[in-house]
Write the structure tokens for this entry.
Amino acid sequence: MQPKISHTAQDLNPVLQNPTESEEIVYQVFSVEEPTNNKWVNKTVINPGKIGEEYNKTHGHYHTTNPHPELYKVEEGEGILILQKKHEILLVKAKAGDQILIEPEYGHSWSNTGSTPLILLDNWSFGHSEEDYVFIDKHHGMAYYLAPEPSPNPNYQDLPQPIWVTPQQLPQGV
Ligand SMILES: [Fe+2]
């Protein structure tokens, strides 16, 4: 199946702690087409590995144009989801079977912290506008880089300390 999105390390330069010339594929997004399970819309596969010191990760975005929640399920692998809104940064360690509902006001990005692909399912059917990426591009990434420990992004001012939470401490969705 052809991915609808495919990002190399170099494609992610605007949001990396340290830009790279690597053309390795970091992650791909596929449409979920099985009619037996219409709950899931997208499948994201983040390859294991690092870009410099940072774990392979997704670009990160907000739901600015369509402020709706988004449900994620980890199908395989393990990773960290960073959730950020003003005055609050959450780091969620997640593994296969975990489900997380992201409230619409949180910017979010996944990192693959394991040695196998991190495979995620989500129910986001609205697509994305340019606007969804602007804040994170402008700040050169999320509030913390996982490099590999959480390292504050100097482009943010007055950053709160990140709070580690479990998927079970967050809304589980339906
Ligand atoms: Fe999203």
